[in-house]
Automatic annotation (TrEMBL), chains A, B, C, D:
InterPro entries, sorted: Bact_transglu_N_2, Papain-like_cys_pep_sf, Transglutaminase-like
Gene source species: Arcticibacter svalbardensis MN12-7
Pfam families to which the protein is assigned, alphabetical: Bact_transglu_N_2, Transglut_core
Record-linked PANTHER family: BLL5557 PROTEIN, BLR5614 PROTEIN-RELATED
Protein name: Transglutaminase-like protein
Domain of life: Bacteria
Residues in Transglutaminase-like domain copies: 161-221
Length: 281, 281, 281, 281
């Protein structure tokens, strides 16, 4: 599937500082950046960094003098997603996980799975099969957590959301991840551009490790699961912040877009009548 | 310096399960494992895993049948530490950090630096020089947090400790790390064997990134800074747990030892009269 | 019903100090203290205080010199409980509550009902009738929270327990109260002596305000609901601490007893087949 | 001193419901309500309630049909304040407090003094004299906590504020109270109308129990200490909410005013050069 994605961000730097942006589409074996435009106005020195496991790709901009700054990113992306039969999405045993996958069982800043062990097992432990467990917890979040803009902030974590039951996509993802990890299912945060997200914005959801693959889940159910362009994966939002800002800076505006550049897009959601998993490779 | 380290751990597995231990001395350019003995009784399949950045080295044991299990580790280690003149321990700018170092600015499960920004800057922001800042916050922890066995548990975090002001080495390290990150100084958790720790146990302290090097700090001031053998570094205790246990398991006993196998060991602590940093390479 | 209750507590005062005990059976219209013995050894000046709404009765002991101290309390109590038909346990409207009852809708230290509003309403809001709601939430706590001695401490609150799902009687009561208040049902903490509690100790449960009466609930289901002698009611454990200690003091021992001094005691628990509420008057 | 206070609040009730307002000036021995106007438009049944210790006086309005509602309160108040010499503001011993005063040592929803014991004693325990301790902690809050509208919400507590160091008057008061209680100084929340508050709004500050009197403190230092009209005192904001709303309700507007109706008002703040306490009787 081909996507055309755009984002524009503006800041006012009142002091020299550094801006790290995590808005570029990730390059993976199956996500190809066909065309890409990255503009910074006025000109400041920019540098691309790639994290250890090539899980995100970020741009660091060095603002050496107070200035407004405007960043524009446009890209044409082709990505492949794969449908995996439910029967192959078995629970991977701890003894069979590699070191990187194991690290996605650890609790993290916004996903305190260590505090949710009993809750997760009381609620979902009895369910047969790891894929069914993740589907069930995703549904539980969807039905119980109210999507409410402005109800949470950048410090809100899964431990809060499981009780307060309101939040935005970031909070839905953190809670899904924390519940998975508490059930000994590795899970990681996914940020991306999302087709049909309304109002348009960056989106966050999560991937769970099932049958040796990272399967995508979105407890908000706001957009088609196959309408995503991956920006980054990481332990949680701490690893994948859209923008990290150092200096005396005012955020002034944001605009995000994601269009499908192909015909015949068929929106996909999980459907118990015909169950299969979806993976971004 | 040469060290002889030992640890013995016993568990009772009431079900099949998996045990992941993080008790082996790390192999680094300057920490050499001269001899090493690793025994598991009775025999179960074991496998060594190394994390992405070679920051820890762990052993996974697959217990396929209920059983008591006894692990014994003994090693002869030679490590080098370097003294770095205080004048070289300048504050590294965000624009000069690589992707891995940048990740140690992120808040993590037990080090919620995002919540401590104002506090850290109110308390230590005015101090001149990054090395002095870290020394000052280490002293503040030492003077204000009471070392009190049993006062905290595996869920206690820096956010708790900054207020409750009691804890053990793990809590002292988490608070040190969180304060550093809130001051835009990358910091990471360090677990190791420690000479002269009383009662003998695994030890935790932290490293701050100063002048392009990871400098060691220990807010407990319980042992000489140059009497450590590194087991692992990571974001916090979530990355470097001594033991991760999967299954129905009872912990039964632990014994830890660390002796210096060299003569002429001169215990080292930071001393304002003759200031220099210490790094484990 | 007649009860013989006893408690003995010992402390070591290493400095002069004050000890406030909340271990005396409350005097209410229907709970009569037939006989009572209160001994303090060695002699220190003691004073009885009664709280504003006669909801607790406490003894303040002024230890003016370092000393061990041993307190013994024995009493013969007669109390009446009333069975109220389920049909009379209607939901009282906010417009019909007096000022004191209204105060039991407020969040308190250990019962942060303001944080549980959505959760409580998602879980129990659909249930018909206030009595059924409280029975349902009591059952939910009983089935999901593990009774685990030592799993919590004096700072643990309902907000923790709803997620961590382990605790002792105090935690079960706090969670019950917080859920009730979040459902706009006034609820208060109840401490008392309990017949058949094993091991013997002080007990905590809660009362919900239904049909204009305070109905007793115990999510631990450890003892018969009609086997209690009331010591105090209050917003939560902060108001009704068994002992409040001021000074440099070591707690050394406790012993609690509660026997029925009548024949023909018929243990009572709520039973959906024959539903009625129980009130301590 | 005479004050003219006004407040106007508007709500939209989308369902029948109940509104409890705590905006009336309290009647105390030394605060006289000379004239008072209370209007509800359209007409709904209203009832005045007074809490147990006459610490607040609230109006309950029963909205029996969906409607907008507009409340207007105007009053002419005469109150007396007393200056108490610093020498009389001694620390009251626990053995000399009555039951009501003792209850203001308990931790409460937003003032978790039990968690701040070590911190408060580390920071202020060494200071000589209870009045000086409270002045010092008030100053510490003033200098370290940033007054930042919108930085906190109705769930923010002293435990958050002590670390996050931003908030509004309510948060400043909660932290002051929690620190006092942790130092065994009874303290309570004070809501009122405040002269010279900008922008005009209800104000919150706190009283500490010194020398047998309730002395006023305001860590925001936004207004003169002698320019207040007391609405209520209580354990914290949970007891003294300006408005408690039951039903499907939208808050639409608020307007608050407080003018001095006397000449020769001399604004008063604590001044170390001429130290005396101020009490609202």
């Amino acid at each position: 599937m081909k996507f055309k994605v755009t984002s524009e961000l503006s800041y006012q730097f009142n002091s020299p500082g550094t801006l790290i942006l995590n808005i570029h589409a990730l390059r993976t074996p199956d996500q190809t950046v066909l065309e890409e435009l990255h503009q910074v106005e006025p000109y400041f020195k920019s540098q691309e960094l790639v994290s250890a496991h090539a899980e995100n790709r970020f741009i660091r901009i060095e603002i050496d003098t107070p200035s407004p700054i405007h960043i524009k990113y446009e890209a044409l992306i082709e990505n492949a997603t794969a449908f995996i039969p439910a029967s192959e999405l078995y629970e991977v045993q701890v003894k069979d996980m590699d070191a990187l996958v194991l690290s996605y069982l650890n609790p993290s800043r916004y996903c305190q799975s260590d505090k949710l062990y009993r809750l997760a097992n009381n609620m979902f432990g009895y369910i047969d099969g790891a894929f069914n467990k993740v589907l069930a917890l995703t549904d539980w979040i969807y039905y119980n957590v109210e999507y409410l803009s402005g109800s949470t902030n950048s410090q809100t974590s899964a431990y809060d959301t499981v009780t307060e039951q309101a939040g935005v996509c970031r909070d839905f993802a953190h809670l899904g991840i924390a519940l998975c990890r508490a059930l000994t299912i590795p899970a990681r945060y996914f940020t991306g551009y999302s087709y049909k997200l309304s109002p348009p914005d960056f989106h966050a959801c999560f991937e769970a490790y099932l049958g040796g693959k990272w399967i995508i889940f979105d407890a908000t159910k706001l957009c088609p699961l196959n309408g995503l362009v991956k920006i980054a994966t990481g332990r949680d939002a701490a690893d994948t912040a859209i923008a990290s800002i150092f200096g005396d800076v005012l955020f002034t505006s944001i605009q995000v877009g994601c269009e499908i550049a192909d015909e015949n897009f068929v929106p996909f959601q999980y459907d118990k009548a015909d169950l299969k998993g979806l993976a971004y490779l």
